[in-house]
Amino acid sequence: MTNNELLKQALKERRALRDANTLEESRRRMEAKRKCPQIGRLLDQQRADIFAGLQNALEGIVPHGIEEETERRNSQIAALLQQNGFPEDYLSPLYSCPDCQDRGYAGDSSRRLCHCVVSRYQTLLQGDAWSDEQQTFENYDENRIPATPMPGMEVSQRAYTRLLREQCERFADSLPDTQVHNLLLYGNSGLGKTYLLRAIGVRASQRGIPVLSLTANNLLNQIRRHYFSREEEEAAPYLEVPLLLIDDLGTEPLWENITVEQLFALIDHRLNRRLHTVISTNLNLTELKDRYTERIMSRLLDLQYSRKLAFLGRDLRLID
User: Fold this and answer.
1) What's the distance, CA 271 to chain centroid?
2) Burial class for 269, CB neighbours closer than 10 Å (0-12, 13-18, 19+)
3) Residues 190, 313 contacting (CB under 8 angstroms)
């Protein structure tokens, strides 16, 4: 299945839960009515008042005392439910996800995917990635990192990388109330950037924070497809997920008028919504600026919102 088909499946599953909950609500109402006809009469009156209120609103009439009457009737229904052996909230609306009420979209935008859909999409896309992930802070083994001073420096690669790991772990443990919203992990390949990026994802997932992890190439393919999409239901999980991990920035193709512009729009959008993004790249800061322009770098390097972590030393893959 394509990524968009997986997203549609996640939305379809969420709406199936909504339909199942609606059926259960109906069953509960019928059960309560059969056991206590007075509850049925109060529910019928409640429904009639709702329709009357809508009609009055269309005619510009503002009735008085509706809130008090609704509260009084709800109290009556709750009391009757308890008297007949039901919980007082037995007839309350049922939602598997209270944040989006099983619509799949949350907030004030019909295009803002709820975290429940993003989480399910992540599972469909990558499997239950975080539960089986071995690249964790707990499994981090610094013994294979050289303990001798790095060339031209007094600190060893092991001690230096330990500081980087501690900063990444502190960031993960502080979510969503971190000092900065973005982390930029940069440096040559083979220095543990992807490992720590994945470890952040595992820790965040363990703490109940929805995470979406994509390679830069995968991300830009999705951005390109969304850019040209004409489908109404086309939505972008990477825009709203609380924690987005982008691995290997700089390996994706540079599509004219798409890559740089849309990447800037993504980073700017997520900063404006105070969402968190962690990026790893093998490019240095000069190469990043040359490839992505000053506008993007101003977002990635703004000390108010971002922290850059430079990875230094020998390629760990070449160490026996």
Assistant:
1) 14
2) middle
3) no
Q: Return the HEC string of 116-185.
A: HHHHHHHHHHHCCCCCCCCCCCCCCCHHHCCCCECCCCCCEHHHHHHHHHHHHHHHHHHCCCCCCCEEEE
Fold observed for domain 128-318: Rossmann fold (3.40.50)
Contact 222, 238 (CB under 8 A): yes
pTM of the model: 0.69
Specify the pairing of strand 182-187 against strand 306-311: parallel
Measured distance CA(189)–CA(282) in Å, rounded: 6
Separation of alpha carbons 265 and 309, rounded Å: 23
Q: Bin 36: left if φ > 0, else alpha if -120 < ψ < 50, else beta.
A: beta
Give the DSSP H or E segment for 307.
strand 306-311
In terms of residues, how long is the chain? 320
Type and span of the H or E element at 65? none
Residue 143: count other Cβ atoms within 10 Å of its Cβ: 6
| Residue 289 CB-density burial (10 A; 0-12 exposed, 13-18 middle, 19+ buried) | middle
Q: Is 174 left (phi over 0), alpha (psi -120 to 50) or beta?
A: alpha
Confidence of residue 254 (pLDDT cuts 50, 70, 90): confident
pLDDT digits (tens, 9 = 90+) for 157-186: 999 999 999 999 999 999 999 989 999 999
Three-class DSSP category at 18: helix
- Domain-wise residue ranges, the chain: 3-83, 128-318
Task: Check residues 129 and 283 and name the one with the higher pLDDT.
Answer: 283
CA atoms of 258 and 121, how far apart (whole Å)? 24
Residue 216 burial by Cβ neighbours in a 10 Å radius (0-12, 13-18, 19+): buried
DSSP 82-105: HHTTS-TTTTS---SSTTTTTSSB
Distance CA 115, CA 272 (A): 18
Residues 187 and 311: their CA atoms lie apart, in Å, by 5
